[in-house]
Amino acid sequence: MDIRSQISMVFHLDKCIGCHTCSIACKNIWSDRKGAEYMWWNNVETKPGTGYPTKWEDQLIYKGGWENKGADGGEIKLKGAGKGKGLGNIFHNPHLPVIDDYYEPFTYKYLDLVESPESDDQPTARPVSLITGKPIDIKMGPNWDDDLSGTPDYARNDPNLKNLSETEREAMFQLEKMAFFYLPRICNHCLNPACVASCPSGAIYKRGEDGIVLVNQEECRGWRMCVTACPYKKTYYNWHTGKSEKCILCFPRLEAGLAPACMHSCVGRIRYLGVILYDADKIEKVARSPEGQLVQNHMDIMLDPNDPEVIAGAKANGVADSTIRSAQKSPVYKFVKKWGLALPLHSEFRTMPMLFYVPPLLPVMASLGKADKNQLDKTGPVVKQWNDDWLYDTSTDDIFGTIDDARFPMQYMANLFSAGDVDMIKARIMKLMAVRIYRRFVTVGDIAEDKAMKALQEAGLTPELAEEIYYLTSLAKFDDRFVIPAAHREQAIEMMEFTGDKKGNAGFGFKEGTAKRGL
């Protein structure tokens, strides 16, 4: 085993309120300057929706990520980058998002409100482009459809609607004013990053000590292959400096023992950060997995930090004792491995992202169908919907009977988080609902004990596990949510020096023949 450490994250979508405080905190620190106006290293999208940049999930357009060449388990290649494709597109890359796919950054001429001469007309602050300085008509923004899920231009063009039946689509959009959730996104700092593999200059690298993916600004030549290769479109091109930029996971803050800005500022406290130990020898094998096995194999590569064999292997590979202790307390390990609640976003891109999401436990919709007009005047669970034709029923006699009738079809959630595996989503939704039922029994007492215990048993949980999940989800303190390992810069420098084997392997082998790159 080649055991390495990785700083990893979990976002609990059931708690995100869409306030964008995280985005503003990141913007104010890292991308509030010329050439970076359109960049949102952290953005919050409304789902269903096309996202930022628009339709970033559709790799038929952008050619991001990896693909199998041949049968599942065969050789993987970059979809739109790499040596051959990169050379052919080096002066014209048709798979790059353009500024309109993001949005043309703008501001307002606020001084016009103050300096306008006296007039019978109300002065206005005209919008002007931050690129050209000329007046523009605003048509797009980083989350233009915020709180407007279901709008024809956005929700109905969501790539994740594939494989949904017409009935499921109709149910979603009949309740379009209520059926949406928020999806915060940052760089996933993947185990198999396509951006690193695509860079002709070798400017992008993955740090050996914590797995953070960075861009060396001195070596970047602005080829922008990384923008194409990243399927999440979290690498950006600075049009002013001619360099690529991306989320650096606030590594200067991490090295000082502080949480990243987006996580520290999170109002909903949805974000968790911790260390994961994994077996790097299995990365290539996992990346080549058949699509139906990608998620599970991705989970399996992460190791138990309390296993003596894993601890010994980590120490032999130079992982510090403090990092191992952090891994043992990691909230990410609990959500992903111990409790089986969190899943990666779009595993089918084969980059093996290390940012995981707890799916939202949305309110149930139960059944939705054409109404019997005779029921409109009756009392009971049948409720009148937007018009006289559509009604929904929220009654159920089964504890988990409403899971299949949640406001978002399970297939939609599976397309996002489990490479289409509906059973994986159901298992996690059942656990979330079981904890909710159990805590209702404990705190309110209007649910029978046998019903609460049955819910836990069917979800594969115990009361002890339910209490652990409840605490870390609802009551966790700052140090419980962010378990940050002590920084060892002296070891990081040693990893990057030519003190290894005869081949000149640097540190953990993420770079070969690069002395002190990026330091």
Describe this structure in words.
The protein has 519 residues and is of the alpha+beta class. Helix content is 31%, strand content 15%. The chain contains 21 helices and 19 strands. It has helices at residues 21-30, 59-62, 83-88, 99-102, 111-115, 166-174, 194-198, 225-229, 251-255, 261-264, 283-287, 294-300, 308-316, 321-328, 331-338, 410-417, 422-443, 449-459, 463-475, 478-481, 489-496; strands at 3-12, 43-47, 66-69, 75-78, 106-108, 127-129, 181-185, 204-206, 213-215, 235-238, 243-246, 271-279, 343-344, 355-358, 367-370, 382-384, 390-393, 505-506, 511-512. Helix 16 (410-417) packs across helix 17, helix 17 runs antiparallel to helix 18 and helix 17 crosses helix 19 (463-475). It starts with a strand and ends in a 7-residue tail after the last strand. The model is unreliable at 366-392 and 498-519 (pLDDT under 50).
Produce the secondary structure layout.
Elements: E1 3-12, H1 21-30, E2 43-47, H2 59-62, E3 66-69, E4 75-78, H3 83-88, H4 99-102, E5 106-108, H5 111-115, E6 127-129, H6 166-174, E7 181-185, H7 194-198, E8 204-206, E9 213-215, H8 225-229, E10 235-238, E11 243-246, H9 251-255, H10 261-264, E12 271-279, H11 283-287, H12 294-300, H13 308-316, H14 321-328, H15 331-338, E13 343-344, E14 355-358, E15 367-370, E16 382-384, E17 390-393, H16 410-417, H17 422-443, H18 449-459, H19 463-475, H20 478-481, H21 489-496, E18 505-506, E19 511-512
How many alpha or pi helices? 21
- Could you give a short account of the major beta sheet? 4 strands, mixed
Structural class designation = alpha+beta
Distance between the termini: 28 Å
Q: Choose one word for the global shape.
A: globular
Mean pLDDT: 85
Strand percentage: 15-25%
The strands making up the biggest β-sheet line up spatially as: 12-1-14-13
Gyration radius, rounded: 25 Å
**Low-pLDDT stretches:** 366-392, 498-519
Helical content stands at: 25-40%
Structure summary, number of beta strands? 19
